[in-house]
Amino acid sequence: INKYVHDLSKAPNLSNVGLTEGEDYTVKELYQAMAIYSGNAATVALAQLVSGSEKNFVKLMNERASKLGLKNHRFVNASGLNNSDLLGEYPTGKADDENVMTAKDTALLAYRLINDYPEVLKIASISKLKFRDGKEYPNFNWMLPGLIFEYKGVDGLKTGSTEYAGYGHTGTVIRDGQRYITVVMKSTNKNQRFADSTKLMDYAYATFKKEKVLPAKYQVKGEETLSVVKGKEKSVKIESEKAIELLVENGGKDNYKT
Predict the structure, then answer these.
(1) Closest to 102 in 3D by CA, of 67, 78, 72, 61
(2) Residues near 253 by beta carbon (within 8 Å), at least 6 away in sequence
(3) In tens digits, what is the pLDDT along the chain, a chain of 258 residues?
(4) For the purposes of burial, counting CB atoms within 10 Å of the CB of 30, is it exposed (0-12), middle (13-18) or buried (19 or more)?
(5) Domain boundaries in the chain?
(6) Count of CB atoms within 10 A of residue 230's CB?
(7) What CATH number belongs to 1-101?
(8) Cβ count within 10 A of residue 149
């Protein structure tokens, strides 16, 4: 840990797990501090480890976001803080810049994170972090089991707040095999963001459900077979291997015609 990361971890009014200059920490420790307790200095330390500098890491962030199909984003630092909070050592942008992205892009990023790296939920769902300093740090996602806004099935994902962005929460919940991702931005306080997320999750489960829209072995009329050139058989059947299920708004199954 270098002096800047050490100093940032001690900065007042920022979410942090204290890090000591010159001390070695495992990637797991830093990642847990970031994912569970929103450790800003731990995030910067990881960025430096991956790319050599936070500036190089921010470049990778923007490149990767574009490759993932995010259309409306601009990242200026690794932590998500306003640059004015970074003790004069902000990596890119202006002195008062901060990361920006739309709710849709945030949801898409969360979707890719969960589906490409499902193991992240094992850490995101930990309600309390016991760090090497002997202290216990509660997860800022207060919708997890045992916390004050507990919501059945929630196992992630991340909170955040700045003066410009307000209070945000990207949540994910799974029940009976059906997962939803919710994104709340510009909530007025810590409690309100979870109340807003609860409304979205309640709405999702009350409004949508999986419906079987096509049975197994379904065949399209007029396209039941496919000719085989120089094959043992002159043709083969074309049919669905499994029943096809879609997430459908209640009462909307009849809108899917074959």
Answers:
(1) 72
(2) 211, 213
(3) 999 999 999 999 999 999 999 999 999 999 999 999 999 999 999 999 999 999 999 999 999 999 999 999 999 999 999 999 999 999 999 999 999 999 999 999 999 999 999 999 999 999 999 999 899 999 999 999 999 999 999 999 999 999 999 999 999 999 999 999 999 999 999 999 999 999 999 999 999 999 988 899 999 989 999 999 989 899 999 999 999 999 999 988 888 776
(4) buried
(5) 1-101, 210-255
(6) 4
(7) 3.40.710.10
(8) 17
| Identity of the residue numbered 207 | T
Structure tokens at 215: 């049975």
